[in-house]
Write a structure and sequence with these properties.
The protein is α/β, with parallel strands linked by helices. Helix content is 36%, strand content 12%. The protein has an 8-stranded mixed beta sheet, with helices on both faces. It binds S-adenosylmethionine and iron/sulfur cluster (2 copies). The site of one iron/sulfur cluster (SF4) has 11 residues, from loops. One iron/sulfur cluster (SF4) binds next to loops.
């Protein structure tokens, strides 16, 4: 029933002037430093829970029904479970709520809290097998947290990898090590500080083709393959600031995490403001912002998007059965001595 109502909302959003997807920053503080990231500030404050709650309510009242809570690192926020619970209660539960996290701070208590709060999905960002100072999100660092998720989580877990030279090189081994887990897999195309694609080469498109990935990218796979060989000519229309909203820690909306266009304080946002953002953006050619592209392409061609949309919803609505008996843990050997000095390579502890 919930699924049917959610699909109905999605169909309404094709035609109406309301937003569908909102990404909400709960803090820009982060426990890591990824060399490619422009979305964190060490020492940034936590946005107070009551402020976040009001932002969620405003977004839900405007029509948003898919929410991603992110940062910075959202698990650093002391009220993150409470916020998931509240977000799940909006729109009479006809919504999808995800967390995007590096998982370093995950604990059994947090997972149980998210189960109880009704979290729909956890996207865990992991890039490589071995950490380097610039790419700390590695299997070697988070595998105990992934086992914890496999053991306890009742929500689906998606492993998201940023496509870079290094992740490309390690990806076959990465997938082999994760094969025993019932997780799903996807990629973000590396983007620069303006949202433009930051990797080039046919080998990247071949990697995307070779691996079974969760269906979100199906919406713009052809565009991605073309962009990876330097062809940015296929037209599309960005719905950032309209169907997709990024709400920064100050509570201002942006077109996306990289482009601070269409800024309004979320509490003051009107349908007229949204309508004004329904326009082509100068940065569309070569844009690698996966979330915005997924929503924009899906709403632009609803018929061809029906298959992947149904698949995505099916995944989201599926509750995992935590496994009492886990398959053998992937063998991630201790780091070589030269890399084991915990001061440059953070671990989950
Ligand atoms: C900004 S992070 C915030 C959540 C959390 N700290 C994490 O890393 O998952 C959200 C997502 O953006 C991805 N990301 C960050 N910088 C990126 C970049 N330059 N290109 C592509 N994806 C990027 C991260 O890997 C992560 O999946
Ligand atoms: S963990 Fe996430 S927010 Fe932190 S630096 Fe890495 S990508 Fe950015
Ligand atoms: S086209 Fe849209 S999503 Fe892409 S960088 Fe520009 S504003 Fe952001």
């Amino acid at each position: 029933m919930r699924k049917a109502l959610f699909v109905l909302t999605g169909m309404k959003r094709i035609f109406d002037g309301r937003p569908l997807h909102a990404q909400l920053v709960v803090t820009y503080e982060c426990n890591l430093t990824c060399e490619y990231c422009h979305e964190f500030t060490h020492g940034a404050p936590m946005v107070p829970y009551e402020v976040l709650r009001r932002r969620v309510d405003t977004l839900a009242d405007l029509g948003a029904s898919a929410f991603d809570l992110l940062g910075g690192e959202p698990l650093l926020h002391p009220d993150i479970v409470r916020l998931v619970r509240h977000t799940k209660q909006t729109r009479r539960g006809v919504n999808l709520v995800s967390i995007i996290t590096n998982a370093f701070k995950l604990t059994p208590e947090l997972i149980d809290g998210f189960n109880d709060a009704g979290l729909d999905c956890m996207q865990v960002s992991v890039d490589t097998v071995d950490p380097t100072p610039g790419l700390p999100k590695s299997l070697r660092s988070v595998v105990p947290r992934l086992r914890m998720l496999a053991d306890r989580a009742r929500f689906p877990v998606k492993i998201q990898t940023v496509l870079t030279e290094e992740s490309w090189r390690q990806y076959a081994e990465f997938r082999t090590l994760l094969a025993p887990f019932d997780f799903e897999f996807g990629f973000s195309l590396l983007h620069d500080a303006d949202g433009k694609i930051g990797v080039q080469g046919k080998r990247f498109a071949e990697l995307l083709d070779r691996h079974e990935l969760f269906p979100g990218m199906a919406f713009f796979r052809k565009n991605a393959a073309e962009m990876l060989v330097g062809d940015f000519s296929r037209p599309w229309k960005c719905t950032g600031g309209f169907k997709y909203l990024y709400v920064n820690a100050d509570g201002r909306t942006q077109y996306c995490s990289q482009v601070p266009g269409g800024q309004h304080q979320v509490e003051d946002l009107t349908l007229e403001d949204l309508r004004r953002a329904d326009t082509h953006k100068p940065c569309e050619a070569g844009c690698a912002m996966g979330c915005v592209r997924t929503i924009s392409h899906a709403l632009a061609s609803p018929v061809s998007a029906l298959g992947p949309t149904a698949e995505i919803l099916g995944d989201f609505m599926r509750r995992r059965t935590p496994r009492a008996e886990l398959p053998p843990a992937p063998r991630v050997e201790p780091p070589p001595a030269s890399r084991s000095t915990g001061d440059v390579i953070p671990t989950t502890d």
